[in-house]
Write a structure and sequence with these properties.
Blueprint (H helix, E strand, L loop, with lengths): L4 H14 L3 E4 L4 H14 L3 E2 L9 E3 L13 E3 L4 H4 L8 H12 L7 E9 L8 E7 L2 H10 L4 H7 L6 E6 L9 E5 L4 E5 L4 H4 L2 H17 L2 E3 L2 E6 L5 E7 L6 H5 L5 H5 L3 E6 L3 E5 L5 E4 L4 E5 L9 H6 L5 E3 L2 E2 L5 E2 L11 E2 L5 E2 L19 E5 L16 E9 L9 E3 L3 H9 L2 E3 L11 E3 L12 H14 L5 E5 L19 H11 L6 E2 L4 E2 L16 H5 L4 H16 L7 H14 L1
Parallel strand pairs: 1-5, 3-17, 4-8, 6-7, 7-9, 12-23, 23-27
Antiparallel strand pairs: 2-3, 5-6, 8-9, 10-14, 11-12, 11-13, 14-15, 15-23, 16-22, 17-22, 18-19, 20-21, 24-27, 25-26, 28-29
Helix pairs in contact: 2-5, 12-13, 12-17, 16-17
Length: about 600
C-alpha cells in the first residue's frame, strides 16, 4: 500500500517499540472521523455535546496535571548544546532517545496506534511541509483533523522518497514524571510522551510548525513565527496584511478575528482572518515578505470569549468544535468564565467535579468552572471573517509586523521602530507577563523574544542574526511596530478598551506604512500624535490617551538594565547590532 520505504520502516520500528495491538491509517474521510468519534465516546475519552445546540461538537478533559504546555519538560536535542542555545532545555540526542524509549516501550500494548499523514500548508504547495504523526489518542487524531490538512493527497505528495517530519506521540501513563517533549531538528523528528494536552501533543502545531520549522527556516532562508496574520480592507476595498507576534494568551486570536467598531463598519472597513497562531514567511520574487498560515484550524483560549470580545469566534465554535477543559453543563452545552449568557447554576467543572458558582477552595479562592487555559478546536473555514486567500500557495504580502505583550506599565499603546534593525531589537527584547498558557508563576514579567522563547528550535542568538539578515535580503521591508493593549491606570484598570477598538491603532499603523501620517520621534521610537488616533465614538475617559503614551524615562532605564542581564545570557554569540541598538537607546534616554 505505501510506496515510501523510509516511512514504512519507521512505522515498523515504532510499532516494535510501542507494541500497539493494531495500526490504523487516518485518511481524512468523514466516514472514518465518525467512527472514531463513536469509539471515543464509548470509552469516555470524549463526550458528545447537544446535537441541537452544538451539532458535531465534543467535550474533553485532560488530566488535572496536564492542562498547559510544560516548557521545563520540552527539549531541543541537537548534537551540541550551543546549537540549542541558552534559552532552550537541551539533551544530547542519544540520551533523549534512550530516556523516552524507556517510557514508550510497550506503552501501547492494549491500545491502537493511529497513523496521521498531514500537511502544514496546502498539500502540494512549495511552501508546505509534511509530517506523519503516530499517536495512541483519538482525541489527538480528531484535533489534528481540524488543525491540519489530512487527506490521501498527502501521501501522494510524499511519493516514494519525499521528506517528512517523524512525529511520535504516546500518552503512556500521563505521568508528569514520565513526560518528555523532545525535538531532534537534525533528524527531523519529534517524540512526545506522557501528555495529552494541546501544544504538547498536536505535533503539527508548536513542535513542527515552530520548533522544527524555525530550524529549517534558518537553513532554507525563511521565517517560522508565532504570529497571527490578518488582512484589513479599507473603505476603498484595498486590503493590506499584517502579522503579529504576541506571547501565548496575549491576544493573537482576538486580533486576528477582530470585528470593526460601529463607526468603522459604516466606513465599510473589513477584517480578513488568515491565521491566529503561526506564520511562515518568505521573501518572494518581488522582494517583499509573504506569509502563509500552515494551519487550518484554531486552538483558541475559551475563557473571555463572548459576543462582545470576539463575535467571530463565537460564530466559529457553534458546530464541529472540540472543547477542552471547559465547564460541562447538564444540557450538554459548555460554559467558561466570561462566556455569553448567565452564569450556570451548576455543572461539572474541568476536573470532572460537581460545580456551582461561588464555590471556594481550601485557600478561600473561587473555584473556576473552566480552566483558565481551556480551549476550543475549530475549523478556520467556519470563521465568518476567514480570508479568501487561505489556500493561495504564496500566501499574502505583509505590510507591517507587530510585536507586543502584556505590560501593565512601561510600554505605550503603540510605537514604531526607526528601521528594520531597531525593529529586530524591539522584538528581541520584548517581555510580557506570564499567562496560564504555560506552567509557572502568573504575572511575572519574562523576556520572550518575538514571542518565540518557548518555540525556537535553535540558538536564539542565531535567530536574531537570521532576522537581521532577512531584512537585508528584502527589497521592501515591512515596518515594525510594538503594541500593548494591556497598560493599566493607578487603580489597575485597563486604559485601553482593546478587542475591536484595536482597529483604531491598526489604522494608524497602516497609515504609517502608506506614508499618510506623521509621528512624534521619542527615545524609544515613533509614537502617534494623540489627534491621529481616531477616538470617534469611543468614550475614552479623559486623560487615558495621554497616559497610554507616557514614556517614563526612569522606568525605561530600569528596563534597559533588565534587558542587559537578559541579553548577557547569549554571551559573545549575540549579534553586535542588538547591542548597538541597546546602547543607542541608552544614549537617547540620556
Ligand atoms: P495562544 O493561543 O495561547 O497563542 O493565545 P493568543 O495570543 O491567541 O491569545 P487570545 O487572543 O486567545 O487572548 C488571550 C486572552 O487575552 C483572552 O483572555 C482575551 O480576553 C485577552 N485579550 C485579547 N485581546 C485583548 C485586548 O485587546 N485587550 C484586553 N484587555 N484583553 C485582551
Ligand atoms: C500557545 O500556548 O501559544 C498556544 C496553545 O497556542 S498550545 O497549542 O498549547 O501551544
Ligand atoms: Mn500560541
Amino acid at each position: 500500500m505505501i510506496k515510501h520505504k523510509k516511512l514504512q520502516k519507521w512505522i515498523k520500528d515504532m510499532v516494535r517499540l510501542c507494541q500497539p495491538n493494531c495500526v490504523i491509517w487516518i485518511d481524512g474521510s468523514q466516514k472514518q472521523k465518525k467512527q472514531l468519534e463513536k469509539e471515543a465516546c464509548s470509552t469516555g475519552e470524549i463526550i458528545r455535546l447537544s446535537h441541537k445546540k452544538l451539532p458535531g461538537c465534543f467535550y474533553h478533559r485532560t488530566a488535572i496535571n496536564d492542562v498547559a504546555r510544560t516548557e521545563n519538560l520540552t527539549f531541543i536535542c541537537t548534537k551540541n548544546k550551543s546549537e540549542a542555545g541558552p534559552t532552550n532545555n537541551w539533551m544530547p540526542p542519544k540520551q533523549a532517545y534512550n530516556k523516552a524509549r524507556g517510557i514508550f516501550k510497550g506503552s501501547m500494548k492494549s491500545r491502537k496506534m493511529y497513523v496521521i499523514p498531514f500537511s502544514m500548508g496546502p498539500a502540494g504547495s512549495p511552501f508546505s511541509k509534511i509530517g506523519v504523526e503516530l499517536t495512541d489518542s483519538i482525541y489527538v487524531v480528531l484535533n489534528m483533523l481540524i488543525m491540519t490538512h489530512v487527506s490521501k493527497q498527502v501521501l501522494d505528495v510524499l511519493g516514494e522518497d519525499g521528506e517528512f517530519t517523524k512525529c511520535l506521540h504516546g500518552k503512556a501513563e500521563l505521568d508528569i514524571k514520565k513526560r518528555l517533549i523532545l525535538h531532534f531538528p537534525q533528524d527531523n523528528t519529534i517524540w512526545s510522551v506522557g501528555s495529552g494536552y494541546g501544544g504538547n501533543v498536536l505535533l503539527g502545531k508548536k513542535c513542527l510548525s515552530l520548533r522544527i520549522a524555525s530550524y529549517l527556516a534558518k537553513k532554507e532562508g525563511w521565517l517560522a513565527e508565532h504570529m497571527l496574520i490578518m488582512g484589513i480592507e479599507d473603505a476603498n476595498g484595498h486590503i493590506q496584511y499584517i502579522s503579529g507576534a504576541f506571547p501565548s494568551a496575549c491576544g493573537k486570536t482576538n486580533l486576528a478575528m477582530l470585528v470593526p467598531p460601529k463607526s468603522y463598519k459604516k466606513k465599510t472597513y473589513r477584517v480578513w482572518t488568515v491565521g491566529d497562531d503561526i506564520a511562515w514567511m518568505r521573501i518572494d520574487s518581488d522582494g517583499s515578505l509573504w506569509a502563509i498560515n500552515p494551519e487550518v484550524g484554531f486552538f483558541g483560549v475559551a475563557p473571555g470569549t463572548n459576543s462582545g470580545s470576539n463575535p467571530n469566534a463565537v460564530e466559529t465554535i457553534k458546530k464541529n468544535t472540540i472543547f477542552t477543559n471547559v465547564l460541562l453543563k447538564h444540557d450538554k452545552t459548555v460554559w467558561w468564565e466570561g462566556a455569553d449568557g448567565p452564569v450556570p447554576k451548576k455543572g461539572t467543572d474541568w476536573m470532572g467535579r460537581p460545580w456551582k458558582p461561588g464555590m471556594l477552595d481550601d485557600y478561600g479562592k473561587i473555584i473556576k468552572g473552566a480552566h483558565s487555559n481551556s480551549r476550543f478546536t475549530a475549523p478556520l473555514s467556519q470563521c465568518p471573517s476567514v480570508s479568501f486567500r487561505l489556500e493561495q500557495h504564496h500566501g499574502v504580502p505583509i505590510s507591517a509586523i507587530l510585536f507586543g505583550g502584556r505590560r501593565a506599565h512601561l510600554a505605550p499603546l503603540v510605537y514604531e521602530s526607526f528601521n528594520w534593525q531597531h525593529g529586530v531589537y524591539i522584538g528581541a527584547t520584548m517581555a510580557s507577563e506570564r499567562t496560564s498558557a504555560q506552567f509557572g508563576k502568573l504575572g511575572e514579567v519574562r523576556f520572550d523574544p518575538m514571542a518565540m522563547l518557548p518555540f525556537n528550535g535553535y540558538n536564539t542568538a542565531d535567530y536574531f542574526r537570521h532576522w537581521l539578515q532577512m531584512g537585508k535580503r528584502m527589497k521592501k521591508q515591512p515596518r515594525i511596530f510594538y503594541v500593548n493593549w494591556f497598560r493599566v491606570d493607578e487603580n489597575g484598570k485597563f486604559l485601553w478598551p482593546g478587542f475591536g477598538e484595536n482597529l483604531r491603532v491598526l489604522e494608524w499603523i497602516l497609515k504609517r506604512c502608506n506614508n499618510e501620517v506623521g509621528a512624534i520621534k521619542t527615545a524609544i521610537g515613533y509614537i502617534p500624535k494623540i489627534e491621529d488616533i481616531n477616538t470617534q465614538g469611543l468614550n475614552l475617559p479623559k486623560g487615558n490617551l495621554k497616559k497610554l503614551f507616557t514614556i517614563d524615562k526612569h522606568e525605561w532605564k530600569e528596563e534597559l538594565e533588565r534587558q542587559r542581564s537578559f541579553l548577557a545570557i547569549f554571551g559573545d554569540s549575540l549579534p553586535e547590532e542588538i547591542l548597538e541598538e541597546h546602547r543607542d537607546l541608552e544614549k537617547r534616554l540620556g
